[in-house]
Structure formats: structure tokens, C-alpha cells
Amino acid sequence: MGSEELENDQQALTEANLNKPPDIFLLKARLLFDGGYYTEALAELGNFNKDKSASPREMLEFTYRLARIYDKSGNTKKAVEYYMQTLEKGADYPYYFAANSALQLGNIYEASGNTDKARYYYKKCLNLNYEEYRSGISQKAKAGLSALK
């Protein structure tokens, strides 16, 4: 009944129109992460059954959520590992996971002073073809590139 003007609203509509309910463990991990409960979010991901008939989207979300949790928890090495895995496996899908992984890699490398790698990942983010949250993610990648000049 609401409008679809904001990217969050558009994403909510997309998820509502899926013919499959969300994986409960991924959903719980997402909500716990958003609330700052990183340890609990990681525990929920431990319950996710990767061996079941998980969709490509769910598998990408799983590695993406691991990356985000490790990033916010200060484990940059593990975060980079999972961001790269998400980027490699998700680059050809229309989901935002790969693009935001590239953005976060750009942020990590910028913060560590590696401007060449930061620039590479910001550009990679802008060159990916995806639909979800495109405007917001692209704006952040462009801002990252501008800051490096």
C-alpha cells in the first residue's frame, strides 16, 4: 500500500514477491547484525544449512553476512576473505551482495592506505550489473573514488 520511492521499499517489495519465504537463519542473522549483535548473528549463520537446496541468492547472502559480521567485529582478514568470495561468486547475479562487497573492500583498502586496491574495488563496484540498492551503493563508491583523487 506504500510507495516504492526509496530503495529499501523497493527491496522489501522484491523480497515480498519472491515465491519462497526467507531462510529463517539468514533473516535472524540479518536482523541481529543490524541491531549490533554480531556474536549472536554469527551463531545464527552457524545454523544455516548450506547442504540443503539453498538458492544461489541464499548462498551469496550467507558469505556476504559472514563478511559483514567479521568486518564490524574487527576481523578484517576474515572479512576480506568472505567479501572476495561473495564478489567472485556473485558478480553475475542481479543481487547487491557482490557490489556491496566490492564497496566494502574499497573502504577497507582505503582505510589501510592501499589506494590502488581501493580504487580498483570502487571501480569494480561501479561496473557490476545489479538491481538492488544500486543508487546508494554507487553513490558511496563514487564518493570513495572522489576521496582518493
Task: Characterise the protein shown here.
The protein is mostly helical and about 150 residues long. It has a single domain (about 15-149), classed as Serine Threonine Protein Phosphatase 5, Tetratricopeptide repeat. Helices cover about 70% and strands about 0% of the residues. It contains eight helices and no strands. The chain has helices at about 5-15, 25-35, 40-45, 55-70, 75-90, 95-110, 115-125, 135-149. It starts with 6 loop residues before the first helix and ends with a helix.
Question: Would you spell out the secondary-structure blueprint of this structure?
Answer:
Elements: H1 7-16, H2 24-34, H3 38-47, H4 56-72, H5 76-90, H6 97-111, H7 115-127, H8 134-148
Structure summary:
The chain is an all-alpha fold and 149 residues long. The protein is built from eight helices and no strands. The N and C termini lie far apart (44 Å).
